[in-house]
Amino acid sequence: MAQGLHLIWMILCVHLICISSQQEIEFIYNGFSQADLYTDGVAKILTKGLLQLTDGSGQKMGHAFLKKPFEFNSPGSFSFSTHFVCALVPKPGSTGGHGIAFVLSASMDLTQADATSFLGLFNISTQGSPSSHIVAVELDTALSAEFNDIDKNHVGIDVNSLISIASTPAAYFSEIEGQNESINLLSGRAIQVWVDYRGGVLNVSLAPLKIQKPSRPLLSRSVNLSETFPDKKLFLGFSGATGSLISYQYILGWSFSRNKESLQALDVTKLPRVPSHKAKKKKPATLLIIFLVLLAIIVFLALGAAYVYMRWKYAEVREEWEKEYGPHRFSYKALYDATKGFNKDEILGKGGFGEVYKGSLPSNELIAVKRVSHNAEEGMKQFVAEIVSMGNLKHKNMVPLLGYCRRKGELLLVSEYMPNGSLDQYLFHDGKPPFSWHQRFVIIKDIASALHYMHTGALQVVLHRDIKASNVMLDAEFNGRLGDFGMARFHDHGADPATTAAVGTIGYMAPELATMGACTATDVYGFGAFLLEITCGRRPVEPGLSAERRYLVKWVCECWKMASLLGARDPRLRGEILAEEVELVLKLGLLCTNGVADLRPSMDEVVQYLNGSLKLPDISPDSPGIGSFTPLVIGSNHNPASPSTKPLSASFYSSSSANDSTFVTHSIVHGHGR
Ligand SMILES: *[C@@H]1O[C@H](CO)[C@@H](O)[C@H](O)[C@H]1NC(C)=O
Ligand SMILES: *[C@@H]1O[C@H](CO)[C@@H](O)[C@H](O)[C@H]1NC(C)=O
Ligand SMILES: *[C@@H]1O[C@H](CO)[C@@H](O)[C@H](O)[C@H]1NC(C)=O
Ligand SMILES: *[C@@H]1O[C@H](CO)[C@@H](O)[C@H](O)[C@H]1NC(C)=O
Ligand SMILES: *[C@@H]1O[C@H](CO)[C@@H](O)[C@H](O)[C@H]1NC(C)=O
Ligand SMILES: *[C@@H]1O[C@H](CO)[C@@H](O)[C@H](O)[C@H]1NC(C)=O
Ligand SMILES: *[C@@H]1O[C@H](CO)[C@@H](O)[C@H](O)[C@H]1NC(C)=O
């Protein structure tokens, strides 16, 4: 009985020893921060738990081993399963190379082994020697012909030699595709490796990180571990090597169990990140991209700013009602370009309404662009309608109005360019040769004809409102052309005190204009003043002259009274003068400037007087209204309600627009006349 008990105890004892020697070793490292590993060479555990086998240097190797040896007794029952995740990152600028191995070795000391194609496992003398006591699963990323490598991206099982007993290109069996999918070991991405050993068969499987363990192993080969490790003791670890081909080689995590079933799966989310060594290489590219993006943003902003600037620079006011005037509408940009950006050198003249610029359209047509500043948007619709209608008036002695453009506070009127400028330059400026009587008489008849057409030729009566020498333009053949119709209402006080708002110019304005407003008779008055002006070569009012000569109408009348009517004529008149014609024009001038509107002739009669088909009525300097001059002067200190800020409301077409008188309510009758 005691013997029996003893036997039982013995059996138990042996069993316990067996169990203890067959230590239940099992571990899992999701990163190696906590791991106590033996490392040598360039191998080390980096912060964040990454096990680095090789760094970026060449001809180097590194080893990492579990410090405790792994022992086994009965070869038959000996088995293990392991799972690890590695990443091989080619050194930037290199194709990357050599490789790593999962090692079972009798000794942890592999410092005498060589790097490069020996993978840190063997040296020239231990290679192929049974005394090496090494079994390895190699992930080889270089083709070493001396070891019969099949390619530079393969997995092999090595027993005491780098000439693998089994090898195959790196791949995994994809359950979804039902076929082998190759794996690029040097992709720099994490790769899972499983090594299973049981019943003398060593299986190796690979898969990318996100893929589950394939059902079929990549390599399956019988290996007699009892034969390689006769001492039944081995160390588990990794080896990595570089040569002239260099990779950063890392192990991210490692799980091990003696029993395939109890192998713990690695937690992929807890694994350390693989450093991106491409970053170094990518840096210039990143900088370049940032630079390009910034450049693109700058260019975009610049273009945007340019667009906004252009929009602002060429901004126009365009309203719905203007659509019908489309053909008469010029774009501001077209005018801007035509006048070379409203260049000062292109200024033809400055009037009471603003500057006039010479311009050239792309069609080579020459134009004159008048910029009229105003601060009245009200009534603009009617004014534009009138301007456009004016443009529709066609007469050989009128300056053709081509169109207009509107901007905020600004109206641009485009007319044909008159090469020889305005008449007043020839009358009053010393630089130009004075005109002969013949030339002047032609111009007089031209202007009479134009005004006659305006008063009677169009569907409605059109008033000019501002007849004077400076509004008479000369074309290439020195024909008179009436221009600037209707502009009187755009007068700006500051620019030219000789012009009044809305009603015209002092000396050309009929006395009743202040109270009755503009009508054809006021135009006739202006024409009369113009007749005297062109014949006498002086302005209707010249404040510098003595009292009796100051007002032209009065003075011509005085001359007539003294029986020397012709003495009033321009002393600079060149060539022959036709006394009857000069006399006729002077008398007609006085007739037209009659202080009593009803006693003035119509333009129809004026034309006939001038062409001789009607005799001038018998008048004397003492006839009623003749030679009476009542100058109208606009108050120079205008208040905010002054005409320039008034809506542009008066109609061009009303022959007796008494309501126009609103424009002259600020006029004061100057005491000079009487
Ligand atoms: C090879 O390694 C062994 C030990 O592993 C060492 O004794 C031997 O000297 C080495 N030979 C060479 C040529 O490095
Ligand atoms: C996959 O590769 C293994 C090892 O090279 C091979 O034995 C197997 O036949 C391949 N399977 C397919 C479906 O190609
Ligand atoms: C090794 O793979 C074979 C199939 O190729 C399989 O039958 C065997 O069970 C595997 N052994 C281990 C330990 O996984
Ligand atoms: C393995 O090797 C040992 C020692 O050489 C031998 O005794 C055993 O029979 C071998 N096992 C197999 C399955 O070949
Ligand atoms: C008038 O215009 C014509 C045509 O452009 C030109 O040839 C001529 O010189 C001009 N005359 C004067 C005096 O400017
Ligand atoms: C003078 O002008 C009037 C009006 O335009 C016209 O009817 C008449 O025929 C002209 N007479 C001469 C002689 O030209
Ligand atoms: C002037 O305006 C009033 C009121 O708006 C109008 O009744 C009158 O007919 C107008 N007079 C003229 C001549 O247009």
Provide an overview of this structure:
With 674 residues, the chain is an alpha+beta fold. 24% of the residues lie in helices and 23% in strands. It contains 13 helices and 29 strands. Strand 3 (44-45) and strand 4 form a beta hairpin. Helix 7 runs antiparallel to helix 9 and helix 7 (437-457) packs antiparallel against helix 13 (603-611). Mean pLDDT is 81; it is low at 10-22, 488-503 and 633-674. Bound molecules: 2-acetamido-2-deoxy-beta-D-glucopyranose (NAG) (7 copies). Residues 200, 224, 226-227 line the site of one 2-acetamido-2-deoxy-beta-D-glucopyranose (NAG).
How would you briefly describe this protein structure?
It holds the Pfam family Pkinase. Its EC number is 2.7.11.1. The chain is of the alpha+beta class and 674 residues long.
Blueprint of the fold:
Elements: H1 2-21, E1 26-29, E2 37-41, E3 44-45, E4 51-54, E5 61-66, E6 70-71, E7 80-90, E8 99-105, E9 134-140, E10 154-159, E11 166-169, E12 171-174, E13 179-182, E14 191-198, E15 201-208, E16 219-222, H2 225-228, E17 233-241, E18 247-257, H3 278-313, H4 332-338, E19 347-351, E20 354-360, E21 366-373, H5 380-392, E22 401-407, E23 410-416, H6 423-428, H7 437-457, E24 472-474, E25 480-482, E26 499-500, E27 504-505, H8 513-516, H9 520-536, H10 547-550, H11 552-561, H12 579-592, H13 603-611, E28 632-634, E29 667-669
